[in-house]
Amino acid sequence: MSTSVHHATSPSPTEPHILDNAAWAALSGPHAHLAERNGRAARYPTDVSPFAALEDPADPHAWEDLAALVGPGNVTPVTAVQTVPDGWEIEQFGEGVQLVDTALYAEPAPEAVRLGPADVTEMLDLVALTKPGPFLPRTVELGTYLGIREHGRLIALSGERLHPPGWTEISAVCTHPDHRGRGLATRLVRAVAAGIRERGETPFLHAAADNTNAIRLYESIGFTLRRRTRFALVRTPGGDEQEEREAGQPEERA
């Protein structure tokens, strides 16, 4: 796995790159029609994607907006987060990497078919078997999904997830264990990327930091590691569990 990180050029030295907060850029941009939004916080419907995002993770008011959106005592994954305000709880941190297309050879895959709502049951089954990352009953609405079938059976798929302006994330890359080693995932990544490029956009993707095999594959076909990423599974303030914990604490005495 490469340890060098390529930073794409930001609009100005003082502005963060759009991919530094890709989920917010998507939810406030091309995916705004899907967004559930409250002020400076937004999330996808829970049957589309689990992720929520903040306009500025350093802004306490954005966290207040997220708390109102999610509800007291509830859990949600939030991207681009390092710390949380007082009253919030971090249930889990996830470490990842973000890679961008710098030299990918993209081309259509003649054997690939467009997948849609009628294919969701099979897609969910394949994702449950291979575990490439979150995929829910309406995730297919986020963009184009392609699959490869053999004897009518779905054996590989890949598609589009986050869509910040000018960029599209390739996601849900998976192949049935019985059909690995044939380059199916690579052909689908190239095909999805070809569609993204046709729109004048740049492909990017995320991978778990410990998934070194996938990272090596992506780097070998033309993706460059751009940055390390982190998401947090957080619990909003309030709710029955917090009230029970607080009720169990001894009262402070003067």
Summarize the SSE layout with pairings.
Blueprint: H1 22-27, E1 36-38, E2 41-43, E3 52-54, H2 60-70, E4 75-79, E5 89-101, E6 113-115, H3 120-130, E7 145-150, E8 153-160, E9 167-175, H4 184-198, E10 202-208, H5 212-220, E11 223-235, H6 240-247
Parallel strand pairs: 9-10
Antiparallel strand pairs: 1-2, 2-3, 4-11, 5-10, 5-11, 6-7, 7-8, 8-9
Protein described:
This protein has 254 residues and is of the alpha+beta class. Helices cover 24% and strands 29% of the residues. It is built from six helices and eleven strands. The strands form two sheets. It has an eight-stranded mixed beta sheet, sandwiched between helices. A three-stranded antiparallel beta sheet has the order 1-2-3. The longest helix has 15 residues, at 184-198. Residues 1-11 and 250-254 have low confidence and may be disordered.
Overview in brief:
This protein is α+β, with helices and mostly antiparallel strands and 254 residues long. It is 24% helix and 29% strand. It has an eight-stranded mixed β-sheet with strand order 4-11-5-10-9-8-7-6, sandwiched between helices. It has a three-stranded antiparallel β-sheet with strand order 1-2-3.
